[in-house]
Amino acid sequence: MTDRILEFLRNRREDGPCLVLDLDVVRENYVSFASAMPDTRVYYAVKANPDPRVLELLAKLGSCFDTASVVEVEAALASGATADRISFGNTIKKERDIKRAYELGVRLFAVDCEAEVEKIARAAPGSKVFCRLLCDGKGAEWPLSRKFGCDVDLAPRVLEHAHRLGLVAYGLSFHVGSQQRNPAMWDGALKAASAIFNDLGERGIALQMVNLGGGFPTRYLKEVPAVRAYAQSIMQSLRKHFGNHIPETIIEPGRGMVGNAGVIEAEVVLISRKSDDDVVKWVYLDIGKFNGLAETMDEMIRYPIRTSFDGDETEPCVLAGPSCDSVDVLYEKDPYHLPVSLEIGAKVLIEGTGAYTTTYSSVGFNGFPPLKSYVI
Hints:
eight-stranded mixed sheet; 29% helix; TIM Barrel; elongated; Lyase, Ornithine Decarboxylase, Chain A, domain 1; alpha/beta
């Protein structure tokens, strides 16, 4: 929460929920990553928040960009980034999208199987590819599934196949899970990456790069280590597993870059109980899972919530969204303690919402408009 955001909200007269994002915080976050890891290139994960003003700022600061689609590639280019600063990091791509990215100048692509390698060889000949490894995401608040990546035993074959098809077998990537609060979780993946580097080196294929992925957290209800703690832990692991032959490294912060830069202002629509003896009160907001808070699924991401009644006596409350869908309940298994004095019509501030909110907001489910966004 910044004074700039609070001042903006004080002067706002529009109705409906909105996200307000402070670019000064994004700038500070970028500088933190760049200074803590000076030998590592920063590839901002565009999907976290693709607002043009965020991308333009990061492009001016020197950031590279991790993109998941042609639309994101074009957005990164429009921000002022050159194609050599863009990675097509999605392992699931249509061949025509690979071709379009190649035509736009992109030469760095992610893969996790031989079929994807073959598409890139046809549509983007001579490009660099890096193979994504499976990670279990242990310890992450938003763990990633087996949807992306391949087993460490398969990765060498995927990269050898790329080499034989005329592509540059450039390196490896992994993702230790989003909102990863344990800096030591990069160690196991780097150990596996080192073994693959050695394996392929013995076959005459010299890998050059390790993509350390994202996972760098933002602060929600729990404290998180500083960026420098992650940098020190990762560098220690690189030295341990790669010795004096440390490869090129890149990182893909998304949540860690913009999460704490944004605050959502929402309104209490209804407060009720389900029975006379119900000890838990239901608080319905004008924003829910379908309006930008999709990461409350399974209550994995627990956002800090502030009200003008903070300091008063509290009671347990179930938080839910406004839509006519029974899954639109934000927190029920572990209710939030909110002020007893909270009223219908009161504004609430949901902090740490700069990442993965506007992009998750539906176009018009139940007729509710997409989440408004203001960048200041």
